[in-house]
Amino acid sequence: MKEENIKPSIIIFSTAYLPFEGGAEISVKEITDRINDFQFDMVTARLDGKLPKFEKISNVNVHRVGFGVPALDKYLLPFWSCLKASSLHKKNHYRVLWSIMASFAGIGALFFKIFHPKIPFVLTLQEGDSEEHILKRVGIFYPLWKKIFKRADRVQAISNYLADFAKRHGAVCPIEVVPNGADIRKFYRRRQTRFRWLKNDLKKDGEKIIITTSRLVEKNGVADLIESLLYLPDNVKLLILGAGPLEKNLKLKTKNLNLEKRVIFLGQIDHKETDKYLKIADVFIRPSLSEGMGNSFIEAMAAGIPIIGTPVGGIVDFLKDGETGLFCKVRDPKSIAEKAGILLKDNWFRDKIIANARKLAYEKYDWNKISGQMKRVLTP
After folding, report:
1. Per-residue DSSP letters for 324-366?
2. How far apart are CA 239 and CA 252, in angstroms?
3. pLDDT over 90 at 338, yes or no
């Protein structure tokens, strides 16, 4: 009888996963797609009753728990995820426990670690909200939340900012900075004629396009970006890729500022399609109030689109002002417009920024390289 080649198993705790797309979910997918040495099982909140309780997504066996009611599923996730993972552990004998963020799933991972103390606990930090916002959300559960950091055997942070965040909240284990990345080959491709229909539809002759790919929440500063158009020529348009709770308010703001012809809300676009929109843009801007890192910046850099961001959180790891992009001030539409104007007018400076940023993206932020680093982090 032929002996099966059994891979060591890793159990992943994540509050959400595909088809819900955020930076954390995309990064897990990109990393696990490239690591074939482990069996990956995941426990996550169901969040939508239409989603199956189990499905295999690429290299990950996804086990969803809950009723499909977002608020209820999240609050019960710490208990349900621990119970489900413990049941799976009896069969799969997990070698590593991997938690995606110190969140609802992180508390579930903490409970699992308490019951299975010998299993190494890797905590990945992808948090994008401000520290103040996170602590306010944690509230009276701070002592329990802090134990996630204390019980971790290794922390992987996507930025130096989040590495320092872990230290401030009790991490005493080794901390390694492994950033998120981009599919460099996909975004690096030269502009192709097959995207000409998109350009003809969204960009008329003589127009300039600013693009942002952002969840429509306060921290991403989309309202400031919309207002910045008041200080830019009429031929400058803004494409907004993304959805979120502020969409209605942002559309109302656009109407009140009489900018409806210059701001195009494209809604939630499948991540696989974002490169097409980047290829018709002239500048990428996200004037964040806080940022763990910002995958979208790296994708724009790889695509050859100059970037503008704010000097907050993990952005400072890759955006070097005047070298790989430009900084604008936080909550300052005039500053956003000033920096956008520089990149739209000065072609020599723009080309220098693009070349430097593409070089950095290729050398440091290729998912193939990132996954190799993560394989080392996850190896017990």
Report:
1. TBEE--TT-HHHHHHHHHHHHH-HHHHHHHHHHHHHHHHHH-B
2. 16
3. yes
pLDDT of residue 90: 97
Rounded CA separation 140/374 (Å): 33
Q: Where in the chain is the domain with CATH 3.40.50.2000?
A: 9-181+367-378, 184-364
Report residue 197's pLDDT band, with 50, 70 and 90 as the boundaries. Answer: low
Q: Which three-class secondary structure state does DSSP give residue 14? A: strand
Rg of the chain over Cα atoms, rounded to whole angstroms, equals 21
**SS3 call for 158:** coil
Length of the chain in terms of residues written: 380
Q: What's 9-181+367-378's CATH class?
A: alpha beta
Q: Which residues are bridge partners to 209 per DSSP?
A: 237
Whole-model pTM over 0.90? yes
Determine the Cα–Cα distance for residues 289 and 214; give it in Å rounded to an integer: 12
**Which residues make beta-bridge pairs with 10?**
40, 96
Contacts of 73 (CB under 8 A, 6+ apart): 45, 46, 47, 65, 66, 67
Q: Where are the alpha helices (DSSP H) in the chain?
A: 23-34, 70-92, 104-115, 131-138, 142-151, 160-168, 184-188, 196-202, 222-228, 247-256, 274-278, 295-303, 333-345, 347-364, 367-378
* Cis before 333? omega within 30: no
Residue-wise over 50-61: b if at least 16 C-beta within 10 A, else e?
ebeeeeebeebb
- The residues, any chain, with a CB within 8 Å of residue 256's CB and separated by 6 or more, are none
pLDDT beyond 60 at 2: no
Unique residue bearing structure tokens 């955020």: 22
Instruction: Check whether 186 has a pLDDT greater than 90.
Output: no
CA dist., res. 278 & res. 295, Å (int)? 14
pLDDT at 3: 41
Q: For domain 184-364, which architecture applies?
A: 3-Layer(aba) Sandwich (3.40)
